[in-house]
Amino acid sequence: MHQLLAVRQARRPAPHFRAAFLSLFLLALAWSLPAAAQVTIQPTTIPNPVQGSAYNQQMTASGGTAPYTYTVSSGGLPPGLFYNTAGLIYGTPTTQGTYTFTFGAYDGTAAFGSRSYTVTVQPPAVAGPTATIVVADTALAASETSTVTITFSTAVTGFATGDLTVANGVVSGLASSDGGTTWTATLTPTAGINDPSNVIVLDNAGVTNAGGTPGTGTTTSNNYAIDTQRPTATVVVADTALAAGETSTVTFTFSEAVTGFSTQT
Ligand SMILES: [Ca+2]
Ligand SMILES: [Ca+2]
After folding, report:
1. For residue 265, how far is its CA from the centre of ligand 2 (angstroms)?
2. Which segments of 95-136 does DSSP mark as H helices, in order?
3. Which residues of the chain have pLDDT under 70?
4. Ligand 1 center to residue 140 CA distance, Å?
């Protein structure tokens, strides 16, 4: 019985023999290949350039033996962009579009690593409209109104009084006579106000230029003072029983300093 089992086992290579054979095979394979350094290029992605805007992107290699020498090994950088052997991609792209290239580096032992990149040159950012706001009459009394002039950097659409926040008053009659660049309106102060500090604020996001780009932030007008509190007066006649030939002092007391007060009306 024991002899039969020994014969059966002899027909297959022993497990330790197979493991040794595999080790020898791998060793021979390793000897047949060069000892390749793993040169890795970073970063894994790079920002999209913007047409007409300066671009700088430093590429780095690691894993090999310094120094590294960088190169574009296939494809091409967008027109206007260049690279140097120190790994800097630089320049000002001139042409929108999508570009694919491989950026690589040789290390000191001529081991090479690379990475593929795809960038899309973006259209230049378009600035939204800006504005100035001028209130003509900077001291508004009761019954007065003022012209307000809003001048944009370009013709705008979507401009309405709702885009304006008006301190202690309202604007009305908003209109443009030059196609949307210069606008005028009438500012009417609220009655019963005595406030030296007032401004009109425009929400620039409420208007867009011809390209459909809205403004950003806010625009504030010059300051205007409002005094629409009409003065009140009390009149006291000292002698309340005037006989013929008598005179009396009459005292007028106003609620605030007044001008234009005379016995002539
Ligand atoms: Ca005035
Ligand atoms: Ca608007």
Report:
1. 48
2. none
3. 1-15, 17-22, 24-37, 265
4. 4
Residues, beta carbon < 5 Å, ion ligand 1 = 137, 139, 144
Domain's final residue, options 121, 155, 178? 121
Q: Is 206 exposed, middle or buried (0-12, 13-18, 19+ CB in 10 A)?
A: middle
176 Cα: distance to centroid of ligand 1 (angstroms): 24
Query: What total number of domains does the chain contain?
Result: 3
CATH label of the domain that carries residue 160: 2.60.40.1220
Please, what's the largest Cα pairwise distance for the chain?
164
Residues 136 and 223 in one domain: yes
207 vs 135: CA distance, rounded Å: 20
- Shared domain for 156 and 135, answered yes or no, is yes
Ligand 2 midpoint to CA 163 (Å):
5
CA of 206 to the centre of ligand 2 (A): 4
Question: Is 208 among the domain residues?
Answer: yes
What pLDDT is attached to residue 265? 62
Residue 18: φ, ψ to 5°: -65, -40
Q: Please, what is the Cα angle at 136 between 133 and 138, to 5 degrees?
A: 100
Residues 143 and 207 in one domain: yes
Structural domain that includes position 71: 40-121
The predicted structure's pLDDT at residue 7: 47
